[in-house]
Amino acid sequence: MEGWTRRQILAQATIAAAVYTLDPHELCCGSMAYAQTAGAESFELKKVGDGVWAGVAAARYKVNSNAAVIETNDGLVIVDSHSKPSAAQSLYKDVQGVTKKKVTKVINTHFHWDHWQGNQVYADGNPGLEIIASDRCKERLTDPNAMNGGTAFIDKQIAAMPGEISRLKDAIQKVPDAAGKARLEGNLAQAEAYLAELKTMKPPVPTRTVSQTVKLQEGGREIHLMLLGRGHTDGDLYVYLPKEKVMVTGDAVVDWMPFIADGYPEEWIQTVAAIEKLDISQVIVGHGDPAPKSHLTFFRGYLTDLVDGVKKGIAAKTPLEEMKKQIGEALAPKYEKGMSKYPLGQYRDRVGVNVEHVHAKLAKQG
Ligand SMILES: [Zn+2]
Ligand SMILES: [Zn+2]
């Protein structure tokens, strides 16, 4: 797909308006994204090593993170718990199809809502469960002012969802075609179900934190919990299995366009460069299919070119709106195809917002 469609320009405007209010990964009403996945199962378990699976989340209007499932002699370690208990239950049901072992540890890669709000599914009736995150992640989860995740953000979503639901209802009235109407009605059903779940949600926060990289010997399996500095957030935790050569990144690496609002773009480039030095055969990313190691280089390339583009724009005193267009076009030949594989998080829907966020961060640094 070349150039900007009207939909994409509209979607950009909607994202720009929505991104600071509620939803770090998606927008309310502007996207075509969901028709082909609205009825899909929530997860697909993909084996990436002996006793290691990626729980790949289907693209849905109310987005879910991927999970990693690691079997040990003592039980299961699960990385990330999605945006809601029903999603964690769905993943857990799939997991029981491959192993009946008990979940002993849950790891939250970062504080965003779509990676931890299902924690209670694993904690309920399981008093021995350990929930592990970085110390900074836990601080964010309990910080009343944290953006885009944490206990307080659940209340913010409960407050914001009725507005989102009424915007969807308005959009359903206005959409001219039956297919568009059906798609938005699917989104509305998801939004209403999500609000109902939010009201009963009580995800437990981590019971154990790490402040630097630790190497766990976990039931016969070596699991490294790696802290490499700030990136997607200031508390990103990577989970690395050196023997199986599997890296679990959370949203520090995704297979669609990155979300930068809570990020540190220049430091982020360095953290991805640091994991590229490791022996890796498969990367379980935060969203999208497991990827080969080469994806790390591609993803870092995008962040690098994005930051360079914004720096040049600032030096040339290019107005922000102009910069968004220029960088969007300049980087498209290299990144549009690879960053537009799924109905969600596509290049043209996100690049302008990415430019805005990088610009805001660089401006703040002076
Ligand atoms: Zn995410
Ligand atoms: Zn995230």
Q: How many angstroms separate the termini?
A: 37 Å
Share of helix, binned: 40-55%
What characteristic shape results from the CA principal axes?
A: globular
Rounded mean pLDDT is 90
The class by helix and strand makeup works out as alpha/beta
Domain count: the total is 1
- Uncertain residue ranges: 9-39
Characterization of the model:
This protein has one domain: 4-Layer Sandwich (Metallo-beta-lactamase, Chain A), CATH 3.60.15.10. The chain is 42% helix and 16% strand. It contains ten helices and twelve strands. The strands form two sheets. It has a seven-stranded mixed β-sheet. A five-stranded mixed β-sheet has the order 8-9-10-11-12, with no helix packed on it. β5, α3 and β6 form a beta-alpha-beta unit. α1 packs across α10 and α8 packs across α10. Bound molecules: zinc ion (ZN) (2 copies). The site of one zinc ion (ZN) has 8 residues, from loops. One zinc ion (ZN) binds next to loops.
